[in-house]
Write a structure and sequence with these properties.
By secondary structure, this protein is mainly alpha-helical. It contains three helices and three strands. The chain has a three-stranded antiparallel sheet, with no helix packed on it. Helix 1 runs antiparallel to helix 2 and helix 2 runs antiparallel to helix 3. The longest helix is centred in the middle third of the chain and has 21 residues. The radius of gyration is 18 Å and the shape is elongated.
């Protein structure tokens, strides 16, 4: 029963993840789903408590990982794309532009 529940939850996570807007939201959604499944399966006492703890931990960790992939700046000179925290192109020193 646990394995079929895990398969359903992971399938739901894979379906919901593309509906997210940003990599941070994608990571949080997928992390929360997989964390909930892992927490429910590893919990010895109450599956709901393990699932809740796993979902919170997975959502936070997944969100942080997804946030590291946020690329929304580009160099108008060389065309390379960069993380939003960069201000200048490390290759040619040109100020980066916002992609949106």
């Amino acid at each position: 029963m646990k394995k079929s529940l895990a398969a359903v939850a992971l399938a739901a996570a894979l379906l919901v993840t593309p509906l997210s807007c940003t990599p941070t939201q994608e990571g949080a959604a997928f992390g929360a789903a997989t964390g909930a499944v892992a927490g429910a399966m590893l919990s010895h006492h109450r599956h709901t408590r393990g699932a809740a703890i796993g979902a919170v931990a997975g959502g936070i960790i997944g969100g942080l990982i997804g946030h590291s992939y946020e690329i929304d700046r580009f160099c108008p000179t060389c065309g390379r794309r960069f993380h939003y925290s960069k201000q200048y192109c490390p290759y040619d020193g040109t100020p980066l532009m916002q992609m949106r």
